[in-house]
Amino acid sequence: MVQRAGFIGLGDIGLPMAKNVVTKGFETTVCGHVRREPIEEMVGLGAKEAPNPKGVAENSDAVIIMVQNDKQAEEVIFGASGLLEGLKDGSGILLMGTFAPALCRKIAEAGAPKNIDVFDAPVVGARMGAEAGTLGISVGGDQEKLEKYRPLLETMGTITYCGHLGMGQIVKIANNMCAIGNSLLLAEAVNWGIANGANEEMLIEHIKIGSGNSFSAQNWNWLKWMWTDPPPPTYYVGAKDMSHALTIGLEVRQPCPISALLCELQKGPPPKILEK
């Protein structure tokens, strides 16, 4: 079983995930990426700091990758002093960010000579779920080998086993196609209501108990924080996720016209809620 965990990617969602890992009994090693503050917070909770991903791997039975995009994941895993240089035979990589299924397979192929277990295990539930340890985790990979990593993953949320490597990403991206569409349509509907004289708070409370209800409505204040000026980097991750949806849709000849529109909208500024 996994006793020592590595964690790379201490952002808006990654940091509370990592805090659950270290506070629930796993010896945890982290390394810096962009900001010092999350590293210092993790060290304050008992985590160890390594100088680079290789150092994280050398001190871990499994390493969680929670960076923002494919490019960052490739740098962490394949770059100088990268993860693959430090991983022991039989250890694991848990890809918990949203990445292309093809990248997950590439990582598995590179790790095969050292018997590295690779799982894609992206999450849904946003920062609130990460803080509470109630994320939904869609996992792709070897189902029998998954049991070795289950206790570690369950410090952060609930597992849904989805099938072969890459299927966790497919399920996560399908979720985000809905989530991004719901959030942008909700903003449009609320602004329409306000323009016609309705009160924002009353609108949201009524939508929550009506057929227009959604995760976005239930977490309206968090969503508005995502639409601040300038928005947090997490906002633009939606465009990346929709790009994955369109690329994969083209490969399987599945039209995604609404997702194409959502992708373009996510590249621009976030919605602004009218004041009345």
Task: Lay out the secondary structure.
Layout: E1 4-8, H1 14-23, E2 27-30, H2 37-44, E3 48-49, H3 53-58, E4 62-65, H4 70-78, H5 83-86, E5 92-95, H6 101-111, E6 117-120, E7 123-124, H7 126-132, E8 135-140, H8 143-153, E9 157-163, H9 167-195, H10 200-208, H11 215-218, H12 220-226, H13 233-252, H14 257-267
Parallel strand pairs: 1-2, 1-4, 2-3, 4-5, 5-6, 8-9
Antiparallel strand pairs: 7-8
Helix pairs in contact: 1-7, 9-13, 9-14, 13-14
Radius of gyration: 19 Å
Query: Portion of residues in helices?
Result: 40-55%
Per DSSP, the total helix count is 14
- β-strand amount: 5-15%
Order of helices and strands: EHEHEHEHHEHEEHEHEHHHHHH
Task: Give the class from helix and strand content and strand pairing.
Answer: alpha/beta
CATH superfamily of the largest domain: NAD(P)-binding Rossmann-like Domain
Task: Name the CATH architecture of the largest domain.
Answer: 3-Layer(aba) Sandwich
Biggest β-sheet, characterized? 6 strands, parallel
Number of strands: 9
On the 0 to 100 scale, the average pLDDT is 96
Structural domain count: 2
CATH class of the largest domain: Alpha Beta
Shape: globular
CATH topology of the largest domain: Rossmann fold
**Spatial strand arrangement across the major sheet:** 3-2-1-4-5-6
How far do the termini sit from each other? 57 Å
Low-pLDDT windows of residues: none
